[in-house]
Write a structure and sequence with these properties.
GO terms for molecular function: identical protein binding; L-aspartate:2-oxoglutarate aminotransferase activity; L-tyrosine-2-oxoglutarate transaminase activity; pyridoxal phosphate binding. The protein is of the alpha/beta class. 46% of the residues lie in helices and 12% in strands.
Length: 394
């Protein structure tokens, strides 16, 4: 049987990790996989998470199963973090999932139960795992224009034109903030226009939010999502705790499904629990419990917010330094978009050949679509990258 298997396409982002490790050059720079790194190149355990872990070790009395949909306290804490008070609590069903990826996968499976004819619309470009999960499940897929390769900003006219072709019952996948891979984001006025298109077409939004707190701030990064959730009758949200709580390997995420009225929440909640049971039974608990502890304890929450803010401001500083260094070296403003983009990523907008040249000639690793992870830089490597970009003719 196993001899029937065919090779599967590798994940280009994860492949880079191996290439980087194998490179013997001491001054190599890793701007590949989207993991936050501090100035020393370390992905730290956040202080509040470490403190919560210590408390949990003292207080935890059992590791028996949690609920099929995870712990209600985790749902409440995450709903408050992501949605604030934008939606009545009794309209929201929620289930803990293995990471944000698990939430996206469960969202797709929920769509298969509720709207089997649905086409899933994704931004072009989008996170490659969106595409691979949708294709793996055999769901119809369409792309809407998103990125203007000239300005490196959102091509909103193209996006609105493409979304006008969405049919009732379709799903429109949107990035809540810090678009991966481009770094280009919608303004609030553009979110409002997206809402009006969704209302006109009768499509349902699925918002993937994996970087809340990495862009303009915790509240600011959720503002567009909250507008959608409060104005649409229904909305799906896949939230990841991997980045903003630094709990990547704990696999902590949540799927929220908002019904038009509270009458429908019970059956939606039962379907989320059913889908968890089909795929993995009980979701991972450790990361979800730590996140709940951090969000519900005033001191831990304040410390977490302070550390997250340091991370966010640090990345913004690196963006500004890189943009101004490039302006100085190139004598042009064409890299100004780096300071406008938000989150961990920016798409430089160059060819795979020049990305390869950066790697071969300078030991600088970025994804072949020219996505770079800003957090892979520090004050000393920004000028090195800027010089390499200009020398490479990007
Ligand atoms: N969605 C996007 C856009 C991402 O970049 C990520 C990144 O890791 C995820 C979802 C899910 O992450 P995880 O499954 O590690 O929580
Ligand atoms: O886009 C990224 O780099 C992150 C991390 O299969 C990631 O979202 C990359 C690939 C992958 C899972 C996570």
């Amino acid at each position: 049987m196993l001899t029937n298997l065919k090779p599967q396409p590798a994940d280009k982002i994860l492949e880079l990790i191996g290439m980087y490790r194998a490179d013997p050059r001491p001054n190599k720079i890793d701007l590949g996989v989207g993991v936050y790194k501090n100035a020393e190149g370390v992905t730290p355990v956040m202080r509040a998470i470490k403190a919560a872990e210590k408390q949990l070790w003292e207080a935890e009395t059992t590791k028996s199963y949690t609920g099929l949909a995870g712990e209600p306290a985790f749902h409440d804490a995450m709903i408050e973090l992501v949605l604030g008070t934008s939606v009545e609590r009794d309209r929201i069903a929620a289930a803990a999932t293995p990471g944000g990826t698990g939430a996206i996968r469960q969202a797709m499976e929920l769509v298969m139960l509720a709207s089997p004819e649905a086409t899933i619309w994704v931004s072009h470009p989008t996170w490659p795992n969106h595409l691979s999960i949708i294709k793996h499940l055999g769901l119809p897929l369409k792309e809407y224009r998103y990125f203007d390769s000239e300005t490196r900003a959102v091509d909103f006219a193209g996006m609105a034109e493409d979304l006008a072709g969405v049919k009732a019952g379709d799903i429109v996948l949107l990035h809540g903030c810090c678009h991966n891979p481009t770094g280009a984001n919608l303004t609030l006025a553009e979110w409002a226009e997206v809402i009006s298109i969704l209302q006109d077409t009768g499509a349902t939004p699925l918002i993937d939010i994996a970087y809340q707190g990495f862009g303009d701030g915790l509240e600011e990064d959720a503002a567009g999502l909250r507008m959608v959730a409060s104005e649409m009758p229904e909305c799906l949200i896949a939230a990841s705790c991997s980045k903003n709580f630094g709990v990547y390997r704990e696999r902590t995420g949540i799927l929220m499904a908002i019904s038009e009225t509270a009458k429908n929440t019970g059956v939606t909640q039962a379907n989320l629990a059913y889908l968890n049971r089909q795929n993995f039974s009980f979701p991972p608990d450790h990361g979800a419990r730590l996140v709940t502890m951090v969000l519900t304890d005033d001191a831990l929450r304040a410390d977490w917010k302070a550390e997250l803010e340091e991370v966010r401001v640090g990345m913004l500083g690196l963006r500004e330094q890189l943009a101004s260094e490039l302006q100085r070296l190139s004598g042009s403003d064409r890299f100004g978009f780096l300071a406008q983009h938000r989150g961990m990523f920016s798409r430089l907008g160059t060819t795979p050949e020049l990305v390869q040249k950066l790697r071969e000639d300078h030991g600088i690793y970025m994804v072949s679509d020219s996505r770079l992870n800003i957090a892979g830089l520090n004050k000393n490597t920004v000028p090195v990258l800027a010089e390499a970009i200009v020398k490479t003719g990007i």
